[in-house]
């Protein structure tokens, strides 16, 4: 203060270590804080410091000082100041935060009263602004205007007028047919910080206690279904969309294959850390090839020719995911020369190559058990794991892959005897092989149809016309970053994005923004349950 006038105010929050200061040090810290921030006012000028802590008045004559107090006294010596005691009772207004502008209170129609102890009390009454708006709109509504005339005081009608002169039905405020006003009323119990986007049922139960208008529940349900925030953050609890689309059954052995990599395995003595899994879709036989994750495409191509083409044939079709090694120009050029078609799964849809994914689970379990039980490198047991899998019964073809491929069971330690003495030569061998392939194809068709019928019971069929707007699901798998989003409180869905065209039975090409350039724009939908019409009549649905 200068000349009885306030020049400046200052305050700050205590730091964590200052919370442990004793009262004497806290009061002295406030003095040091004021001297530091107003040094340009006080340095070289005589000043007086008033405090309600009396012991500070005798600070300079105090005999015992701690290190903190000694350091602060050195700072005080830079100023020509004295510390005076000012009793708390005489200091009625301690800081600027206790000063309320009277004009602001008057603007809020506050009433002031003075208590006996000298304190000033402000009283104000709060009324919702929508009461006045409803009253005005009611007189503009022809239907409600007629109800004003029909009301009576003897209780013969269910319509009445409350103390605010607002028309009510059974004690509930009658809402006029005004879309803008109804939208405000619906928005308050749903989108405000006090509501936090509750569901339609809870919102309807809250509103029906205060308001009434025809079709209230229907409008509440429609309002909640159109809320974009709810669409992005709320979980799905309905049947997933999209019927199962089985992959075509091959005509012959090793005609159509699937492949994938098992990476992240422990490094072996020969520096291998991955397994290349290649499967025949008809015979269900598998090849497990040990590789390293940094193998070049030329080396992988050589292994492919040696292990698959040499022993079986050149496949007509390969199904795989969108691994960079499979989508490279070299890999495409190689199979173009071999006249092999490459089919890739859509982004974030491993079910397309579900056969390889399931075999990988079995292989990992086998290798895990071998490493724990036999205390050796997994690469040593990989050939035995391949033999064990190819000699195990497959429910889909109702036989062992080895038998399906070679026409007879394989000799094992548990079955050491000669498996049959009959020899089939010439045309009989060709006929029996052909009949076995037909039998396997029939069994695969039966298993595929059975699986589809069971799966479709828990799904619903749906299509997206071009121009629809859809959301992308952002569900992290094992803390994997997806679509640039991660974390517990990240949105469940992002978008909406426009459907450009349909690229398959259950796959669509989307118009993705530049920040999702790393995501392939062809995606297939999975759990889709909500579809609403926005203000521009474009549908908003969910795509996975």
Automatic annotation (TrEMBL):
GO BP field: DNA integration; DNA recombination; proteolysis
Any Pfam family matching the protein: Integrase_H2C2
Alphabetically ordered keywords of this record: Aspartyl protease, DNA integration, DNA recombination, DNA-binding, DNA-directed DNA polymerase, Endonuclease, Hydrolase, Magnesium, Metal-binding, Nuclease, Nucleotidyltransferase, Protease, RNA-directed DNA polymerase, Transferase
Superkingdom of source: Eukaryota
InterPro entries in UniProt: DNA/RNA_pol_sf (IPR043502), Integrase_cat-core (IPR001584), Integrase_H2C2 (IPR041588), Retrovirus_Pol_polyprotein (IPR050951), RNaseH-like_sf (IPR012337), RNaseH_sf (IPR036397), RT_RNaseH (IPR041373), SH3_Tf2-1 (IPR056924)
Domain Integrase catalytic: start-end pairs: 246-409
Molecular function per GO: aspartic-type endopeptidase activity; DNA binding; DNA-directed DNA polymerase activity; endonuclease activity; metal ion binding; RNA-directed DNA polymerase activity
Protein's name according to its UniProt entry: DNA/RNA polymerases superfamily protein
UniProt organism field: Gossypium australe
């Amino acid at each position: 203060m200068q000349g009885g006038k306030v020049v400046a105010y200052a305050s700050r929050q205590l730091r964590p270590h200052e919370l442990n200061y004793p009262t004497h040090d806290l009061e002295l810290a406030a003095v040091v804080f004021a001297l530091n921030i107003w040094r340009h006012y006080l340095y070289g000028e005589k000043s007086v410091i008033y405090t309600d802590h009396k012991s500070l008045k005798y600070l300079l004559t105090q005999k015992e000082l701690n290190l903190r107090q000694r350091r602060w006294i050195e700072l005080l010596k830079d100023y020509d100041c004295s510390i005076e005691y000012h009793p708390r009772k005489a200091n009625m207004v301690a800081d600027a935060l206790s000063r309320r502008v009277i004009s602001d209170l008057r603007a809020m129609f506050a009433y002031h009263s003075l208590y006996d102890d000298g304190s000033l009390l402000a009283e104000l009454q709060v009324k919702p602004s929508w009461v006045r708006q409803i009253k005005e709109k009611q007189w503009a509504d022809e239907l409600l205007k007629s109800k004003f005339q029909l009301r009576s005081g003897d209780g013969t009608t269910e319509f009445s007028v409350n103390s605010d002169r607002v028309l009510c039905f059974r004690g509930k405020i009658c809402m006029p047919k005004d879309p803008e006003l109804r939208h405000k009323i619906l928005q308050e119990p749903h989108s405000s910080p006090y509501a936090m986007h509750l569901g339609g049922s809870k919102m309807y139960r809250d509103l029906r206690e205060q308001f009434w208008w025809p079709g209230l529940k229907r409008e509440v349900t429609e309002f909640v279904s159109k809320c974009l925030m709810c669409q992005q953050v709320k979980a799905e609890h309905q049947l997933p969309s999209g019927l199962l689309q089985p992959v075509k059954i091959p005509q012959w052995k090793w005609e159509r294959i699937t492949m994938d990599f098992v990476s992240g395995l422990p490094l072996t003595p020969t520096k291998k850390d991955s397994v290349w899994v290649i499967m025949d879709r008809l015979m269900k036989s598998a090849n497990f090839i040990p590789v390293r994750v940094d193998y070049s495409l030329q080396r992988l191509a050589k292994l492919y020719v040696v292990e698959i083409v040499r022993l079986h044939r050149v496949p007509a079709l390969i199904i795989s995911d969108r691994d960079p090694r499979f989508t490279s120009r070299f890999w495409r050029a190689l199979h173009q020369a071999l006249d092999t078609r490459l089919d890739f799964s859509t982004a974030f849809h491993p079910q397309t190559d579900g056969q390889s994914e399931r075999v990988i689970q079995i292989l990992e379990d086998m290798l895990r058990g071998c490493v724990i039980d036999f205390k050796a490198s997994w690469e040593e047991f990989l050939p035995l794991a391949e033999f064990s899998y190819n000699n195990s019964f497959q429910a889909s073809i109702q036989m062992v892959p080895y038998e399906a491929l070679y026409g007879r069971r394989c000799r094992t330690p548990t079955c050491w005897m000669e498996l049959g003495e009959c020899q089939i030569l010439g045309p009989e061998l060709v006929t029996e092989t052909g009949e076995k392939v037909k039998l396997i194809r029939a069994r695969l068709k039966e298993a595929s149809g059975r699986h589809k019928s069971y799966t479709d019971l828990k799904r619903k069929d749906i299509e997206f016309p071009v121009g629809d707007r859809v959301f992308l699901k952002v569900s992290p798998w094992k803390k994997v970053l997806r679509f640039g989003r991660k974390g517990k409180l990240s949105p469940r869905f992002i978008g909406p994005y426009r459907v450009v065209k349909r690229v398959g039975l259950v796959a669509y090409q989307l118009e993705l923004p530049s920040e999702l350039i790393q995501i392939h724009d062809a995606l297939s939908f999975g759990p889709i349950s909500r579809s609403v019409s926005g203000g521009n009549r474009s549908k908003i649905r969910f795509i996975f």
